[in-house]
Amino acid sequence: MMNFDPQGIASFVWKKYKKYLKEKLKRDILNLQPPAKIYSQADIVYITPDIFIRPVKEKDKFYYRVELYEPEVPFVHLNIEYLLMIDDKNIDTETKKYLKENMEDAIRFLKDLSERREILLAIGKEIVQKFEKFIIGWEDKINPLPLDYLSQKFKIDKNILKLAVENHFVDTPRGIYPLKFFFKD
User: Fold this and answer.
1) Among 4, 39, 119, 146, which lies 20 to 30 A Cα-Cα from 103?
2) What is the pTM of this model?
3) Residues contacting residue 69 through CB under 8 Å, at least 6 positions apart
4) What is the distance between the alpha carbons of residues 106 and 83, in angstroms, rounded to a whole number?
5) 140-153: b or e for each residue (b if 16 or more CB lie within 10 Å)?
6) pLDDT tens for the 185 residues of the chain, in order
7) 67 Cβ partners below 8 Å, 6+ apart?
8) Do 110 and 76 touch, CB atoms closer than 8 A?
9) Strand runs labelled E in 37-182
10) What is the dihedral of CA 170, 159, 114, 72, to 10 degrees?
11) How many CA atoms lie within 13 A of 184 on its CB side?
12) What is the distance between the alpha carbons of residues 127 and 24, in angstroms, rounded to a whole number?
């Protein structure tokens, strides 16, 4: 006949249960999420303003400086060697045609980059001019400008301005605002 040892069985069961608890605790810790993630439906999106409006005081003069955020924009230029190849008599016409087409695309791209920069700077300066009291903090509400007004003032198509205002932000001394906060369609 076998000897029945209640303490031995309890000790065996306890060891198994202890091992199970350790593994479960390990799994639970690895699956933990930060408390805020439980309540968040979407990923966090960080905003980088495209325009900075900074107060500047020089001597007795006070004004606002409008700057663009451009740290990762590399200096883009056309390679002079390709320009020279277009006029080279030793290069076949098909290659010249290819170079000309790509050169025209590159020039258009550089022009578009420059225009985008000018449009954003102009929008920033217009914000300073029209909404200075809001930027300073003297007014709490603004009456947004119609995009038609900007379109006429800058002689730019309204759809281009709409694109310039959508998903772009301005950093003012009062905080960061979407550009569309200052303009209405």
Assistant:
1) 119
2) 0.66
3) 48, 49, 50, 51, 52
4) 11
5) eeeeebebeebbee
6) 556 555 666 676 677 777 888 888 888 887 777 766 666 666 677 888 989 998 888 888 888 889 988 776 667 777 788 788 888 888 888 888 888 888 888 888 888 888 888 888 988 998 888 888 888 888 888 888 888 888 888 888 888 888 888 888 999 888 888 988 888 88
7) 51, 52, 54, 124
8) yes
9) 51-58, 61-68, 145-146, 169-172, 175-178
10) 50
11) 5
12) 58
What one-letter code names the amino acid at 117? R
Determine the residue type at 179: L
Tokens of 158: 């309204």
Strand duo 51-58 + 169-172: pairing: parallel
Q: Would you state the structure tokens that stand for residue 143, as one six-digit string? A: 């009456």
Among all chains, which residue has been given the structure tokens 């791209």? 109
CA–CA separation, 169 and 177 (whole Å): 6
